[in-house]
Amino acid sequence: MVLFTHYTNKLEEFMLRKLLSSTSQKKLQLIEYLLNDSKTSFHELATKLSSSISAIKNYLIEIDSEFPFLEVQSDNFSLVSLQLRPFATLMDVYSHFWLILLHFNY
To answer: Locate the M protein trans-acting positive regulator (MGA) HTH domain: which residues (predicted)?
Structure first.
């Protein structure tokens, strides 16, 4: 049963990524990358996500306003990190993107 649940979660995650707009895909990639890493430079993020530094900064501003359960932290806008608030989980992030898709389809 655990293997089936793991497979189902991976399938849902794959479907989510395919259905999201390119901007939402970048935001999701950015969130996942920052949650798995400590402080990261804007240059490294831009390289990793094949985006410009200004696009990364804009994504972070949008993430900060769209996700009340995430905390964007930056050090003079040279290094950035992202933290889940104590009451939140990564599933909250995925749920947010699923809601965007559901809202878009109706």
So the answer is: 24-68
Distance CA 105, CA 35 (A): 29
Helices (H), 37-71: 42-48, 53-66
Nearest to 24 by CA among 61, 63, 81: 63
Domain residue spans of the chain = 1-104
Which residues, 6+ apart, have CB-to-CB distance to 27 below 8 Å? 59, 62, 63
Average pLDDT per consecutive 10 residues, the chain (106 residues; last block may be shorter): 45 68 90 89 94 94 94 86 91 86 65
pTM of structure: 0.79
